[in-house]
Amino acid sequence: MTTSETGPGTASPALPDRAAPSPLGGEREMLEGWLAYHRRTLAMKCAGLTGEQLGERTVPPSDLSLLGLVRHMAEVEHSWFRNRLRDEKAPSLYCTDADPDGDLHPGEDATWDEAYATWQSEIAYAREVAAPLPLDHRGTGERSRATGEPFNLRWIYTHMIEEYARHNGHADLLRERLDGTTGD
User: Fold this and answer.
1) How many CB atoms sit inside 10 A of residue 152's CB?
2) Dihedral pair phi/psi, residue 2, rounded to 5°
3) What residues in the chain have per-residue pLDDT under 50?
4) How far apart, in whole angstroms, are the C-alpha atoms of residue 55 and residue 103?
5) Sign of dihedral through CA atoms 128, 106, 162, 137?
6) 3-state secondary structure the chain
7) 101-113: per-residue pLDDT in tens?
């Protein structure tokens, strides 16, 4: 899928419907299926909006925007699959010491095209590195602060589903405030 420049007056791309995984699938099929479902849900919440709308903070006093949520999920994909699963020690995409939540605070120069392309690149990378690994594969990177143990791929998938599901709830509210669109 390609995107056009999305500034004021132009719209993010329309997306096809998403499908839930089979209720009879195996564990891996379920985990990967639900993760794909929630990734697509966030994309759907952003579809058809202008760049201006995507960056709008519609639920005061929160400063969340759909653009910020997409940047955040790019950062989350990056952190979990590059740094915890693979120990790449890759620097943050958007967060800095000065703004540890920089992913959620897109500046005036932030664009939908860049955020969407980065998010999709991180998703593609995650799929590529996880595909050959068994679910019990232990990450070689950052460990749990609580237990000191590594995270296995099953835990990472489950956490990613939780992360998307939580933020998709935020996206629901943001989108409804923008144009009245509701739905899951």
Assistant:
1) 17
2) -110, 160
3) 1-10
4) 12
5) positive
6) CCCCCCCCCCECCCCCCCCCCCCCCCHHHHHHHHHHHHHHHHHHHHCCCEHHHHHCCCCCCCCCCHHHHHHHHHHHHHHHHHHHHCCCCCCCCCCCCCCCCHHHCCCCCCCHHHHHHHHHHHHHHHHHHHCCCCCCCECCCCCCCCCCCCCEHHHHHHHHHHHHHHHHHHHHHHHHHHHCCCCC
7) 999 999 999 999 9
Which of 66, 58, 63 shows the shortest CA–CA distance to 99? 63
pLDDT at 52: 95
Q: For residue 50, report the phi and psi dihedrals to the nearest 5 degrees.
A: -80, 165
Number of C-beta neighbours around residue 83 at 10 A: 18
Beta-carbon contacts of residue 148 (< 8 Å; ≥ 6 apart)? none
Total residues found in the chain within this entry: 184
| Domains of the chain with bracketed CATH | 27-179 (1.20.120.450)
CA nearest neighbour of 37 among 54, 22, 24 = 22
Quote the pLDDT of residue 10.
47
> How does 105-140 read in b/e, with b if 16+ C-beta sit within 10 Å?
bbeeebbbbbbbebbbebbebbeeebeeeebebebe
Please state the pTM of the whole predicted model.
0.90
